[in-house]
Design a protein that fits this description.
413 residues, mainly alpha, three-stranded antiparallel sheet, two-stranded antiparallel ribbon, 15 helices, 13 strands, globular
Length: 413
């Protein structure tokens, strides 16, 4: 896809969103309809057959945007969703919980890493958010909604509860948790586990697991000031931006509060702290500035790195700033413009921007990743219309879960 310079801001945002959505529209697995984990890169697995639960959930939301904007016929996206649901109904599950990776043709679990071939509760939560959004969007097909409801009701969130009330990320029903297995504790991307788990009628997670485990993590509360911004939650300097982006692809953070934070404030503050670090640029990396910032997990010249202010290798990930559009649009727009108009001949292609790049190391990834492409599409659409927020946050499972955990928001009133 050629670089078209000189577009106005709205047209450029649309162009970037539409191009990024092609990762899912043109490169989802042809049998399952699931999102492939990545388009390239040597990571020791079959790129063509390795599909991912979380990226598929995000990809469903991105394809809803494509239907809504008329980039593809609504019927085409509905057909894709029905095919995907049929695949999931017969794919490997562990007490209803999907693994991180599946084989795109057979539906059998693939190990994410040695010994991790069971249920992944966080990835399943991301998948369910996408499915619930699709059920809400395609309201003309009640049978699809019923099948999605059955997939959701089959998820045994409580099977991942440890005796002390902590919620465990990974589980295989035939094996005990390893002695070094860590529970899901915040602040991180896993907030939807507690929201959906608390909102489940069939296998709920108790609210005390949220308040007495998740919110008691040493790195949960922050409260430090970075430049002019106070960061409510998270590790020092906030960590990778996906920590505050993934939870709010579907859950609307605007006015969302509980005993610990205002989550609209959290998401914006995290983006601004990340930007502040890049403007300070303590390592002197080439290119960093107001029109080039954004650190999050992505490919890297050294492999795969959870980039953040405390793990800064000079690598910029486009989804970091572009996924922040709903929270920091004025700060994100110069990055989008610079990457497309000035760097586009290097990092722009048929499915939008490459996964990551480093001006210092004169390196650009030969890959795109589902979990990085989708937040660009979703973030730009939520900035434009709030579509995905309305669909997902309007679902009764999400509303029940938020209320059970003590959240308040204008849309919950």
């Amino acid at each position: 896809m050629a670089v078209l310079r000189g577009l106005d801001d709205a047209a450029l945002r649309d162009r970037v969103a539409q191009a990024s959505a092609l990762y899912f529209l043109d490169w989802s697995h042809p049998v399952s309809g699931m999102a492939r984990e990545r388009s390239g890169g040597a990571f020791g697995y079959d790129v063509g057959e390795t599909v991912c639960a979380g990226g598929t959930g995000f990809g469903l939301l991105a394809q809803i945007v494509a239907a809504e904007r008329g980039w593809r016929p609504r019927r085409d996206i509905l057909d894709r969703t029905e095919r995907l649901v049929g695949f999931l109904e017969t794919a490997d599950r562990f007490d209803g919980v999907f693994p991180h990776f599946l084989h795109g043709t057979t539906g059998r679990a693939l190990p994410f890493m040695p010994g991790d071939d069971g249920g992944d509760l966080v990835e399943t939560a991301f998948l369910m958010l996408g499915l619930l959004g699709a059920a809400a969007y395609f309201s003309e097909e009640p049978s699809l909604a019923a099948r999605i409801q059955a997939l959701f009701d089959a998820v045994n969130w409580a099977a991942h509860l440890r005796d002390d009330g902590a919620v465990m990320w990974h589980r295989h029903p035939d094996r005990p948790w390893p002695s070094n297995a860590l529970p899901i504790r915040g602040w991180n991307e896993a907030l939807p586990v507690f929201v959906l788990g608390a909102g489940s009628h069939s296998h709920p997670i108790p609210a005390r697991s949220y308040h007495q485990s998740w919110a008691r993590a040493p790195a949960f509360r922050n409260g430090q000031r970075y430049g002019t911004v106070t960061l409510p939650l998270g590790p020092d300097w906030g960590g990778p931006l996906f920590l505050s982006q993934y939870p709010f692809l579907g859950i609307d953070p605007r006015g969302l509060r509980d005993d610990y934070a205002d989550y609209g404030v959290q998401a914006r503050a995290h983006a601004l702290v990340n930007r502040h670090h890049c403007l300070r640029n303590p390592h002197g990396w080439k290119g960093y500035g107001p029109d080039l910032w954004g650190l999050t997990a992505s490919d890297d010249p050294g492999g795969y790195v959870a980039h953040s202010p405390t793990e800064d290798t000079g690598t910029i990930t486009p989804s970091a700033a572009l996924g922040s559009f709903p929270f920091a649009p004025d700060e994100a727009m110069p990055v989008l413009r610079h990457m497309h108009d000035d760097l586009g001949d290097w990092i722009w292609g048929e499915a939008g921007f490459v996964d990551a790049f480093s001006p210092t190391h004169d390196w650009a990834a030969d890959s795109r990743l589902a979990i990085d492409q989708a937040p660009i599409v979703i973030g730009l659409e939520n900035h434009r219309s709030g579509l995905l927020w309305r669909l997902v946050s309007g679902r009764p499972e999400v509303r029940r879960g938020l209320q059970a955990l003590g959240f308040t928001a204008p849309y919950l009133a």
